[in-house]
């Protein structure tokens, strides 16, 4: 079981690094098309939050004894579902998906995929990931602290995104 979890941990780190590379590529693409970037001041909060999440997850898992629990299968099922929803969010936005706030002038927000139903579905998914991923690893402190911190960062991020969407030319 622990071997599987080390593989899963490695997958998560690689996935997040790949998403940052995709975001960087999409950012360049959007800026070349006249996109305006806002919210740069708080972007570091996301970097710190998610970096510390992995440090905390690693620390709790590596330095405490792991005991199989029935919660594992519920958490694994939720994790798989959340990954499918994550991919749906990213693919729905296409080249406009980013970890930063970028708006293209004269372009309306995308309202397809999960964005038809929720204004910020990716943030809901990330919140749930920050709950369920730690449950897989029995990293209970991480599972309590980081969803809360995520909500605090979103109190800055979502208003900044909404303002950027309202102010685009």
TrEMBL record:
What's the protein's topology in the membrane? Multi-pass membrane protein
| Transmembrane intervals | 42-59, 71-94, 123-156
Q: How is this protein annotated for GO cellular component?
A: membrane
Which GO BP terms apply?
methylation
GO MF annotation, one: protein C-terminal S-isoprenylcysteine carboxyl O-methyltransferase activity
Name of this protein: 15-methylpalmitoyl-4-hydroxy-2-pyrone 4-O-methyltransferase
Q: Pfam families annotated for this entry? A: ICMT
The answer to keyword Nucleotide-binding applying to this record is no
Keywords, sorted A to Z: Membrane, Methyltransferase, Transferase, Transmembrane, Transmembrane helix
């Amino acid at each position: 079981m622990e071997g599987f979890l080390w593989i899963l941990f490695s997958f998560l780190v690689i996935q997040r690094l790949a998403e940052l590379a995709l975001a960087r590529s999409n950012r360049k693409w959007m800026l070349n098309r006249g996109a305006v970037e806002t919210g740069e001041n708080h972007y570091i909060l996301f970097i710190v939050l998610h970096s510390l999440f992995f440090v905390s997850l690693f620390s709790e898992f590596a330095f405490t004894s792991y005991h199989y629990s029935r919660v594992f299968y519920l958490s694994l099922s939720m994790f798989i579902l959340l990954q499918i929803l994550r991919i749906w969010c990213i693919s729905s936005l296409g080249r406009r998906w980013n970890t930063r706030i970028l708006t293209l002038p004269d372009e309306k927000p995308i309202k397809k995929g999960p964005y038809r139903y929720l204004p910020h579905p990716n943030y809901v998914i990330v919140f749930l990931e920050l709950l369920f991923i730690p449950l897989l690893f029995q990293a209970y402190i991480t599972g309590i602290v980081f969803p809360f911190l995520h909500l605090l960062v979103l109190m800055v991020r979502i208003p900044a995104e909404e303002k950027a969407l309202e102010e685009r030319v």
